[in-house]
Amino acid sequence: MVLARRASRLALLLLLLGILPAAPSSAGPRLTHEYDLKAAFLFHFAQFVQWPPEALPEKNTPLTIGILGEDPFGKSLDEIVANESVGGHKLLVRRFQRLNQADSCHILFISSSEKGRMDEVLSRVNRRSILTVGETKDFAQRSGIIGFVVAEKRLRLAVNLAAANVARLRISSKLLRQSEIVGPLRLQE
After folding, report:
1. In a domain, 189, yes or no
2. What is the dihedral of CA 91, 89, 60, 110, to 10 degrees?
């Protein structure tokens, strides 16, 4: 388990530096490898984002990573966050089929299976202290907070700071330096 965590951290560092490709060239393992990397990112987002105090009111409140829609991660996300905590908050992974179930999470990965109702989903969680993460085209431009973008066979991040500000989330400059900032700096209130 410790080796798996070290490998995920090394993979994230290499990926952030633009050294590691998003996926190998063969079609079969591509999906698994890509989602292993995305799972590592979700884990690390918990370390690079600060939630307002009321989002994690007590020391024993778990920091929940939710997946809305079809789960593309398999066991990898569960394995990466197993026995991990951030700021004293144990990490927990939950899967949701309905949007109203996701109200209690802190990081919400919105699966591409939800692209037909993406605007509804984002408008519902827009002003809550939930870090929305997605992989659909223009996710961050559509008011999602962090979008995964595969460009030149590399996994990149697009961050919508205005959406993060509305959600009252602070994103570390360490993460922002490795990301493309999209959208206006402030959303209209």
Report:
1. no
2. -40
Going across the sheet that includes 89-96, the strands are: 85-86, 89-96, 63-68, 107-110, 131-134, 146-151, 154-160, 180-182
Assigned domain for 188 exists: no
Contact 92, 64 (CB under 8 A): yes
Q: Look up the CATH number of the domain holding residue 86.
A: 3.40.50
Structure-token match 């990926």, residue found: 15
Residues 6 or more apart whose Cβ sits within 8 Å of residue 118: 110, 134, 136, 139, 142, 144
pLDDT in tens, 58-111: 988 999 999 999 999 999 999 999 999 999 999 999 999 988 888 889 999 999
Taking only the tens place, the pLDDT of each residue in 129-161 is 999 999 999 999 999 999 999 888 888 999 999
pLDDT at 24 over 50: no
Would residue 123 be called left, alpha or beta, if left means φ above 0 and alpha means ψ between -120 and 50 degrees? Answer: alpha
pLDDT at 154: 85
The angle subtended at Cα 134 by Cα 84 and Cα 123, nearest 5°, is 110
